[in-house]
Amino acid sequence: MPGGIDTHTHMQLPFMGTFAVDDFYTGTRAALAGGTTMIMDFALPQRGESLVEAYHRWRTWADSKVCCDYSLHVGVTWWSDKVAEEMEELTEEHGINSFKMFMAYKDTWQLGDEDLLKSLKRCKELGALAQVHAENGDIIKENCRKLLSMGITGPEGHELSRPEEVEAEATNRACVLANQVGCPLYICNVTSISAASALGENLRRGTLVWGETIVAALGTDGSHYYNPCWQHAAGHVMSPPLRNDPRTPNLLMELLNAGDLQTTGTDNCTFSASQKALGKDDFTKIPNGVNGVEDRMSIIWENGVVSGKMDPCRFVAVTSTNAAKIFNIYPKKGRIAVGSDADIVVWNPHATRVISAKTHHQAVDFNIFE
């Protein structure tokens, strides 16, 4: 079958005072071990930093290390006329065709609605695909303040501060804003039933929107935030968070099969136990991110195909072909044909393996699927 395309990774991302422990070597090595032959990473400039400079920095980090093909989305983390100009330069000269805006991470990456609208209009003008991380950052900041003042400092505070409706509201708002300016939209890392429902409603109203869910939300759930072992609970901290509703993984898998959600990424952004411990006394300081790049294909096969929720053709679509079509790399990727790239995976449907941090190919010392 065609090699997997992971639409959403963060290798060696500088984040929350540290760097993701899986770099472009260990991360792409692990991707290949799991049947993924292309990753799509993000060049994320700091506020006020040149987008073009950030792009070149990520290229420098990746080019000498990658074991598989990769592409870059570029983050729009602040707004000015210079940003608008650089978006055109990236599109015209460097082949970047997708830009990501954050509705969360207030005071670092978050754009307000006015700047978000300008970014969406610019994407529309350039023929680039707009992506959003959909969570209401203002509410999250207020919830964090409230929880900490109540003495809630553990990893459960992360989940409590970002309830489902906060993701659903931002998902709907992003769809409305994009629809008002006629900009095609891609919602990253949908983790909740509520957000998926909001996306589906907009889809059926005619909004041009695609949805990506991530393998963490398909393979495990938010009950781990309440594990008495702090290290175990912190190992699952990611945004949007895993959901406590036990129906979530099954329902997201069904929506992938039905077409409400089209792609699967991992948001692979790994931090070791010692890095997660930066937030030992304050959940807002726990670096956000989990593994997934190595296990994505297996988890979706097991929970999707083996369970009877999707057939092998749909499996290929949601792990590879849809991504290739949405991001304009089809038919070079996402199919097996004369003239296409020879990204071919031979998949044994009867083989078994045990997922473990002791045996995986990633540098991180914890695996959320173990």
UniProtKB/TrEMBL annotation:
Amidohydrolase-related domain boundaries: 1-351
Gene3D superfamilies: Metal-dependent hydrolases
Enzyme nomenclature, EC number: 3.5.2.2
Keyword Zinc: yes
Entry annotated with the keyword Hydrolase: yes
Record keywords, A-Z: Hydrolase, Metal-binding, Zinc
Protein family according to the UniProt entry: Belongs to the metallo-dependent hydrolases superfamily. Hydantoinase/dihydropyrimidinase family.
NCBIfam families referenced in this protein's UniProt entry, alphabetically: D-hydantoinase
Subunit structure: Homotetramer.
Name of this protein: dihydropyrimidinase
Source organism (scientific name): Cherax quadricarinatus
